[in-house]
Each structure stands twice: as structure tokens, then as C-alpha cells.
Design a protein that fits this description.
Radius of gyration: 16 Å
Structural class: alpha/beta
CATH superfamily: Metal-dependent hydrolases
Shape: globular
CATH architecture: Alpha-Beta Barrel
CATH class: Alpha Beta
Distance between the termini: 34 Å
Helix content: 25-40%
Oligomer: single chain
Number of domains: 1
Number of strands: 10
């Protein structure tokens, strides 16, 4: 199986300072076969990864994490930025209109999750059932919801630091070589997740970081 990290953040996100080239180099060194740099409300990180990825063995999937009015949504296979501040339904429509793949990110997260009620009435194409920055109980709830709704699963580290890259992955069949083939495999439900959830030590760091950044932003969500 190929190992893909489909949720990461570079310096183009306001809460990360990671260099794209260093992210790609680290991914290759860790035996990761594909990556999506899903920066908040911009494709800049993905565009840069696509340029640099030509010199690596990595499959680069274009993506971004859109701040919808209801919570965060991952859009893959995009040609241009999807604006923030729309409803979840409008955001999904914008992603699909580009031929993209719309995924509900970490649905049960306090700061930025969509929540179950929104997901049930929004035509998502998949749910992120394993996010390494979410606690195990949240990831388990998402997995049960995906099974109930018959939706495919995705996963990713949600890395904002190099040490977190690859902590959670989605596995797809061997032989896949492109973004288009990755998204088709996910749509068909051929992906399965592997990795870890957020433990107590990482939770303490995560909460402290989130609160600090929240204050700096003037008590506004990303």
C-alpha cells in the first residue's frame, strides 16, 4: 500500500512556519509516498509543492483547508482558492464545481470542527476519520459516522511541525501514480487509515498553542 499524508501545513498557513521543500524532503525520508499541503485558505503551499515535487518520488495532491462559516473543510484537486466564510454547503459546491474532492476536516474538534449536524445535511465526498492532532475519541466518532453515512475515509497528520509529519496517513493501493488516481481511489472507498491520535502530552502542547494563537488573532478562528 502507498502511504499518503493528506493534511499538512506550511509557512503559508498563519499557524505554521514549515518550509515546503523541507517538508517534501522529510516525507521522502520517512517513506511517505504522497503528500498534500493543505494550508488555511490558500493553495500557495500546494502550488509550491507541485513545483518542487517534480524532483522527488512523491505524489503531490493539491489541496487547501477552507474556513467555512460552520468549520473547516478540506478541498483536494483544486485549480484556484475557494473563499472562506461561506456555509459548508456553499463551500462544498465551490470545491465540486472545480472538479475537486470535498472532505470534512476533524469534525468534532472544538475550535474548528463542523459538528455532526452540519455533516448530515452537507454532501461531503468523504470524512477525515484519522487526524493525528485529534484525540482518539473524536477520531473514533468520525469513523463511526462515516460508516453510518456510507462515506469514504481519509486521514492526515495535520502537521504544523516536522516531527508530526506522517503521524497519520491514508493508505491506497500500489500502482497509483497521480493526484487524479489518488482521489479516484478515495472516492471508491479504497483508502484506509493508519497512524496515531493525539495523546495527553501532545494535547497539553496543542491546547497551549491554540489558546496563544487565538489570543494573538483577537479571539477569532482561522
Amino acid at each position: 500500500m502507498l502511504r499518503l499524508d493528506l493534511h499538512t501545513h506550511s509557512r503559508y498557513s498563519p499557524d505554521s512556519s514549515l518550509d515546503v521543500k523541507e517538508m517534501l524532503t522529510t516525507a521522502v525520508a520517512r517513506g511517505i509516498h504522497g503528500i498534500s499541503i493543505t494550508d488555511h485558505n490558500t493553495l500557495k503551499g500546494s502550488v509550491r509543492a507541485l513545483e518542487l515535487g517534480r524532483d522527488t518520488s512523491l505524489i503531490v495532491v493539491r489541496g487547501m483547508e477552507v474556513s467555512a462559516r460552520d468549520g473547516h473543510i478540506l478541498g483536494y484537486g483544486l485549480e484556484e482558492d475557494v473563499p472562506s466564510g461561506l456555509t459548508a454547503g456553499e463551500t462544498v459546491d465551490r470545491i465540486v464545481d472545480q472538479g475537486g474532492f470535498a472532505v470534512a476536516a476533524h469534525p468534532y474538534r472544538f475550535w474548528s470542527g463542523l459538528g455532526e449536524d452540519v455533516i448530515r445535511v452537507t454532501p461531503f465526498q468523504a470524512l477525515e476519520v484519522l487526524n493525528s492532532r485529534s484525540v482518539a475519541s473524536h477520531n473514533q466518532r468520525v469513523e463511526r459516522l462515516a460508516q453510518e453515512l456510507g462515506l469514504p475515509a481519509t486521514g492526515g497528520s495535520d502537521a504544523h511541525r516536522l516531527s508530526d509529519l506522517g503521524r497519520a496517513l491514508v493508505l491506497v493501493p500500489e500502482g497509483i501514480e497521480s493526484e487524479e488516481e489518488v482521489l479516484l481511489a478515495l472516492q471508491k472507498g479504497l483508502g484506509r487509515t493508519a497512524g496515531t491520535s493525539r495523546g495527553s502530552a501532545r494535547t497539553a502542547r496543542y491546547v497551549a498553542k491554540s489558546v496563544r494563537e487565538w489570543v494573538v488573532r483577537g479571539f477569532k478562528r482561522i
